[in-house]
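BUG: 3D viewer hangs when loading the predicted structure for this chain

Environment: internal workstation, default settings.
Expected: structure renders.
Actual: progress bar stalls at 90%.

Input used:
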Amino acid sequence: MRIAINGNRHQEGHLENIDRLVSALLRRGDTVAISDRFLRYLEDRIGGRFALGIESVPLTRAPRADMALSIGGDGAFLKTAAWVADGNTPVAGINTGHLGFLAAFSFDRPDEIESAIIGGDRVVEHRSVMRIEVEQPQGCPRELFALNEGAITRADNASMVNLRVSLNGAEPLDYLGDGLIVSTPTGSTAYNLSVGGPILEPHLPGWVISPIAAHSLSVRPLVISDTGEVDILVNSRAATFRLTVDGRAFSLPVGQRLRITRAPYSIAIAFAPGHTFTRALRTKLGFNN
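C-alpha cells produced before the viewer hung:
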C-alpha cells in the first residue's frame, strides 16, 4: 500500500511513536510519502536516517495514496483532507493536539492504530465537502473547498459586514454584524458550535448558516439543504473583509460575490470499529456530562 502522512510541527513527546509507526509501515513493504514540511520537521528532530526510503510530497500536489494519516489535531486533519481531496482515500487522524474531534486514534492506544491502520480493521464514513467560488479572486484561488466551514467576517477594524444571502435565487436574507459561518455537518461541531449554531448529524444532506454577533435579535442560525446554491454579496464600510475556509484566511475586497455549492467529491474518514457519532459527542464534547 501507499501511505501518505501529514502532521503539524508540534510533536514533542510523540516523535518516538511516529518513528515507530513509519518504521513498521516500511518493514511491511508499504510505500510511505510524507508532506515535505512535515518530513523536514521530523528529519531535523529524529535524524537524517528517518527520511531514508521516504518520498517527500508537497502539500500542493496530491499524494495519490491508498490511505492518508493525519498526525495532530483537527487543523492538521483538515489540511490532510485538502491534500488528499479524494473520496476514495480514507484519512485516519492520530490525535496529538487538543480536542481532535475528527482524529479518532491516539498513540495512547497503539493496538487500535496497529489494527486499524496497519491491519485494516476500520470503518470509513464519507463526509460531504463544500465548494466556495470567489467571483473576483485577488490573492486566493477561484475555487475553495471546505470539509468544515467557510466563514465570512469583518476585517481588522470595527466596521460591520452587510451580507445579502440568496438561497437558490429566492428573495435574499440580510445579515448585519461581525459575519457569518456556512458549515457542513462535519463542521457543525467546530466554529459553528462556538457561535451557538446547532449540531448536525454527519450524514445529513444540509448546511448551517450561523450569524456571528448579529446586529438583530431576530437573526438566528438557519439549517438548509446542501443540494441547492447559496449566493452571498458582501458589503461593508471597510474596503476589505476576511474569508476563512477550513483555517485558510484571505483578505478580499468588498462588493465580492461568493457562490456556495456541494463539491463533486466527499472525504472518507477512517474510524475504529464501534465508532458512533453520539459516542464522539459524549467523549469529545462532554455531551450529557
